[in-house]
Amino acid sequence: MISDAILITGAGQRIGEYLAQQFLAQHQPVVFTYRTERPAVDALKAQGALGFQVDFTQQEQLTQFLQALPQEVSSLRAVIHNASLWLPDSKIKTADMLADLMAVHVTAPYQINQACEPLLRKSQTAVTDIIALSDAKVAKGHPDYAGYLASKAGLESLTLSFAKAFAPNIKVNTIAPGLVIFNEGDSDAYKQARLAESAIPVEPGMDSIWQAVQFLMNSPNATGSTVSLGQLQHETF
After folding, report:
1. Class at the top of the CATH hierarchy for domain 5-229
2. Catalytic hit among 18, 145, 148, 190
């Protein structure tokens, strides 16, 4: 059985994979979920991380994961809700697609928090953590991403409620990043436009998320809070 593990959802790529690698480098046990098989998933498993393939838009898969987790893990040090589904309104063609956004950003974190509460309370650490990754644009909205941002707003609301429900031994917080890292193939014009949105026009990199995670986990009393990364100057994506 794995004890005092870090559970990271959506760790098959990008931010989730980066966080998993950082924890593994600190010899912290890592449990993670992923939707798609990728070389990064194999690499995490090769380093000793325990991976579960789960599509959070499928309730049956989520239920099976939550039933299997306590059979492999005796306690958790932290839960990091990183799994995300990014869809602009132009691509939301059916009610089911909107429901998928809510499933990934609201339903899954809600059920995971409830299922993981006993494991968090069994940790050898006196105070444990739940951290949700949201989006800096939730605070202002955007005309082209109403569905996506509404679902992330639901995630932030969950964070506030669980912070009260799980206090004082489980801290529950949100990290709301703006730009983190550019995608391969992004044009120079796009990069300049994105950088111009921020009061501090830099590509902060994934280490900015790691630093925020460390701050929240090391804080003795931060709960129900939102760490905003990258203040936006304009309303454009």
Report:
1. alpha beta
2. 148
